[in-house]
Amino acid sequence: MQRLLASSLVAATPRLLPIADSFLSRRRRPRSSPLPALLFNRRYWSKPRKVSRGISMASRKVNKQGDLCNEGMLSHILWWKEKMERCRKPSSMQLTQRLVYSNILGLDPTLRNGSLKVGNLNMEMLQFKSKFPCEVLLCRVGDFYEAIGFDACILVEHAGLNPFGGLRSDSIPKAGCPVMNLRQTLDDLTRCGYSVCIVEEIQGPTQARARKGRFISGHAHPGSPYVFGLAEVDHDVEFPDPMPVVGVSCSAKGYCLISVLETMKTYSAEEGLTEEAVVTKLRICRYHHLYLHSSLRNNSSGTSRWGEFGEGGLLWGECSGKSFEWFDGKPTEELLCKVREIYGLDEKTVFRNVTISLEGRPQPLYLGTATQIGMIPTEGIPSLLKMVLPPNFGGLPSLYIRDLLLNPPSFDVASAIQEACRLMGSVACSIPEFTCISAAKLVKLLESKEVNHVEFCRIKNVLDDTLFMSRNTELSAILNKLLEPASVVTGLKVEADILVNECSFISQRIAEVISLAGESDQAITSSEYIPKEFFNDMESSWKGRVKRVHAEEEFSNVDIAAEALSTAVIEDFLPIISRVKSMMSSSGPKGEICYAKEHEAVWFKGKRFTPNVWANTPGEQQIKQLKPAIDSKGRKVGEEWFTTIKVENALTRYHEACDNAKSKVIDLLRGLSSELQDRINILVFCSMLLIVTKALFGHVSEGRRRGWVLPTISPLCKDYVTEEISSELKLLGTFPYWLDTNQGNAILNDVHMHSLFILTGPNGGGKSSMLRSVCAAALLGICGLMVPAASAVIPHFDSIMLHMKAYDSPADGKSSFQIEMSEIQALVNRATTRSLVLMDEICRGTETAKGTCIAGSIIERLDNVGCIGIVSTHLHGIFDLPLSLSNTDIKAMGTEVVDGCIQPTWKLMDGICRESLAFQTARKEGMPDLIIRRAEELYLTMNTNKQTSSTAHHESSIANSTANNLVDKPDCLKNGQEHPSGTFELLQKEVESVVATICKKKLLDLYNKRSISEVIEVVCVAVSAREQPPPSTVGRSSIYIIIRRDNKLYVGQTDDLVGRLIAHRSKEGMQDTTILYMVVPGKSVACQLETLLINQLPLKGFKLLNKADGKHRNFGISLVSGEAIAAH
After folding, report:
1. How far apart are CA 215 and CA 201, in angstroms?
2. Which end of the chain is more exposed for a tag (fewer CB within 10 A), N or C?
């Protein structure tokens, strides 16, 4: 669950500005390409081929240019040699022929541009490379990022770049990318598992022939992007999911999985895991590096290839096809040393231990269990995770629920989660939208001081949402309940009062510095004669970020410089423009004041404006002052571009003022980042608290929609053992988690389990569905979540183990029966009296008689253990065995005869079902009738006393309905203006008052006519921008009024207020929509009130968008007289 701390949606990420934008230079740079979520998937490479130049003793000697390879670099050079041997593109393969292995760059000094003299660029890059020898080095050179030697080959092989200078054989390997493509290049490299070290140039004027200074500005790793310069971008930035460094070891306690997150500076060491649990975690985790401890070699078989036989085989099969390294020593300490080495961290760097103890907690899900309920995506198996949350409810909340289900919490935490869910189901007030930010993103941006103003606004939203909950009576109770679950995930303990005080302080501090709304004192400069685009390009990158009061001097200097520039343009260019206009003709002079975007300058552009005869007429003096415009390198721009000394001086002063103002803004942003570093823990905790809260609110909404309930959880761990506690599992009205009872396609069953069940039933009769249903309900229950049932009592099991079908593994040389026995022995050996064990059709992969005996022995063993569970089977010979059973019941999935045909009822009942419906199932799946008839004949010869019948199979069709909501773009958005907040609040209160009066009178009238059973209290609830209705509205009829910023109203009614509001807000211009809603008794009443409001609100002076709906036949009753309503 620690991994969730640094997770971030996974979804399409916004565009990031290039690194060049971060430099305070006068010229602007183009924007970069998108940065998708980073992935890592190392491949198992084929046998390497020879490279023309191997490592020889001579290559390690001192050459003419000095000692370039010491013993410390030898292992890294060998590492790069292996990478070069894996190149497969023809162009990169040709480049590898020009490498030598005498230095960490792979540079041949004898080739063209290969000199490694002290002071040149190659030597400078060699020195940078020596600091991070296993990272690709990209060095900024002008408008490009360049790589040489090994790194150039990697760029050509994995980033799709062409080598500089083509494939000429007399030059060193060299490649690179433009500044604008840096993000895409980093994405390509990190996706392939490479880390990248980026070297930037120090911007600013330099002396002639002087080499620019360079510095390492940052690194890009898989799951950890390059953030240098992000403080200057003008939009939010998204981070990929973090990738930990993972190590696996083995001891007498079991397996140990160590996970280290460099970004968070945290690690966890989960001990006592089973082999299946380790493999499950490795399969769902995308990691940067995998290390296997030497203790894994000492397996029970004693073979040189660990895991070749017996214990360890499953783990070996998971790791053998992936890239990993061995390590020795104390596992945790050695792995932390490896991490410091990989990321170039100081030896004194401290990592915080966030390990969650397994004591008192259920075992993590086994691989087979997670697979068979879809927690690990598997074709054909419904995903439990997708049913627990609303559709399209992904990102960080989804990751939290997934990790919660894969790693069930302790009884205390589960109880806290359940109580929070119970409170959420009864909340009547509006709730925040719950801004979610990845903790890894928070930490990395704050530590690197690269938080931009947009991200500060999102951080403030997180804090304000937390404060909103703390100040609301209903929500504060939920907040207090969720402190413990958030503490478990973050490894941080924060008291409620401290949390509120810290949130209030940080939110206030951000509000003091960051510009949160469009202040009038930060409008972009405008001039009648200078193109608006010029001022917008010059000032939009820094205005509106911080409050002006903190940079008053710099902002004032910009205003003064802009005024001076405007004056210079008016005095030097305007008379020429006036002269040109007065002589307008098709072949006459032309001239205008233009913005040269590429040069960030305002110049005069014209031709044929010089008079043939100077007659001292207006404008001639200004024409004489013109001179050709030149670019930053002193070259003439073109024949039509002109400027004057006065305009050029004013332009220079304006650029300097803008640069100073931008520098001041960036300093303020970075200063605030530095200030908040001391409170990173509070921010991380708040972020996770909102992620948990949003996830559970979403779960409660979806659970209520699906008809799920919160179960009663009974403790079964040693800390809670009392005589009062029952070990029974009771599920009343349970149904498969992937079916929706609202659509009427689910068969309800009652399951009372205080012992082991032997379950029989026909093919397609629901045995496997029953096992998955019980497994899912038990898992959801012990996690504190809602379950698919009418009511439930669920013990807090110490493990939930589900075994279903097994397949063979030719790669391991194992048959399906071998794999089945391997999995079942793990379940049987670990089962306790507090376990839930579910096995589907065991021992079907071998000879029937012996398989029956093995199955009977397994059942007898589980009966002796005393666990709760289900063993389904078609081996009816089990009931003829002399088994010693005292804790086992016999159950079956029922059948019935309909029109002479046997059909399954999918209902659980007592007894044994010996009818398999095998022939009908085979016929339904397309088996030729000739084969089926012959099978029936053979069956009759074996069992003359049995008859066969056919069954028809009916599939229910599921109808999906969608709601159409037509939303016009508000006039206020079309005009770029909004009404003042005070006016809008008055309108909201007026609408609320009128709606309450109309509805109150109508509901009283309905009660008098006995149309409703009781007088309903009219309560209008407001849901403002960035808020949403509570889960208590799910499945209940309500009317709602949308109040738009143009003062127009929209009246509607729905049984799914949350979904309807999401649909409305998805329309352009409706994102910040405010609504009023009222829960009413039934859809009929809602329709009547909707029609009444549509017809009456216009009479009260309100503008309605859907006034015509009041006459629609589906909108309820006829018009009620205005006089009757006005009489209040």
Report:
1. 7
2. C
